[in-house]
Amino acid sequence: MKLFDYIFRGAIDRRISAFQSDLTEKYVVEVENIYRQMRGWRHDYHNHIQIMKAYRSLDENDKIDAYLDSLETDLTSVDTLIKSGNVMIDAILNSKLSLAKNRNISINAKAVVPKNITIQEIDLCVIIGNLLDNAIEACLRIEDETKRFIRVYMDLKRDNLYLSITNSAFGKIQKQDGRYMSAKGENHGFGLIRVDRIVAKYSGYIKRRNEEDAFTSEVMLPL
Fold this sequence. Notes:
Elements: H1 2-57, H2 61-78, H3 87-102, E1 106-111, H4 121-140, E2 149-157, E3 160-168, E4 175-176, E5 179-180, H5 189-201, E6 205-211, E7 214-222
Parallel strand pairs: 1-2
Antiparallel strand pairs: 2-3, 3-7, 4-5, 6-7
Helix pairs in contact: 1-3, 3-4, 4-5
């Protein structure tokens, strides 16, 4: 019996280690993505300064004003992909969606979340993060980039917080014991289990639908 317990604990430890390694790789990719964006902004910032210096040397103040107005408009449009009203939710949504966009995945997202909610923000981040990770991975398995898409909708429905994430999918997603399985293998299943447990923690509701060329996850959490 002790030998069985030892082997069982060892197997669990290896699966958890693999899962943590998978998470670490995701964080590294996301940080690298943000770093590339920052380098791009730095390069653009330098160019903007040079252009305005040139206008000033020519005493063309009206062109400086027009250039500043265009910069303000541009910054407003690229500030973030989405602003829900909740800082923590915005952080996780924009991190994941920015990564998806850089991988040539079409994004359509809308989110309205109160600044203060009864649901722990870390729990929401786990749900959103895992569902979007799955959505991105499903899209990347589609060779035709024009068919890659992710749609995110998040809003209040009566006294509930509603979240829907739909992504393009290729082929039939398999089930085991009534649960959709990740195409990446058993270690990735920990993320899906965590989502289900958090939803149950709040006596919420989760539904997954595998339709033709699309997969949808819907979550309803009582406030």
